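G., the chain you wanted modeled:
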Amino acid sequence: MIRLLCFDLDDTLIDRRGALRRALAADFTAAELRWLEAADGATFAEAAAARFPERVPDGDALPARIAAAVTPTIGVASMLQQLRLRFTLALVSDGGAANQREKLRRAGLAGAFDAVFISGERGVTKPALLGLALGELGVPADQAVMIGDAPLRDIAAAAEVGARSCWIAAGRIWPASLPPPDWSIPDVLALPPLLP
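Predicted structure as tokens:
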């Protein structure tokens, strides 16, 4: 039985890479944007400031620029609305509080969840953040599914706390060195048919 669906935000419910390209296209070449996309992650702002100090004097400003460039992904809000009729929904996302909240607002998802767990607000990252969500919502791990795009931060985190997982493949091949997710789908809109 599944009671709780935990969603990652970046590149799961929103196109963060697209927002990165929109936010920074005027300041960086195509090759530099590819480098920034590859560097994207927990140390993204620091890596960008180190690589491009003349254009990124303040790495902390980059996440805010990206958040401001987020646009709604067609179908996601209505999918979440339908899923919320059957399941408890939680956002479980690593990132700065203000930027993640702004992304939710710009994507039209601010009120889409029963609970929101953002690492910048809670002081812990996944998998501890996922464990915190399970505990606060009172749902056993075996009755929860973590849905996300990151093999380590989302899928391995789910395995670590004993939850099921659904990987947003987005055209990628699952890393053979990692235990596989319970489900793999091309994008988040393919999730509803998988659920009982």
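Residues 39 and 47 are 7 Å apart (CA to CA).

Shout if anything looks off.
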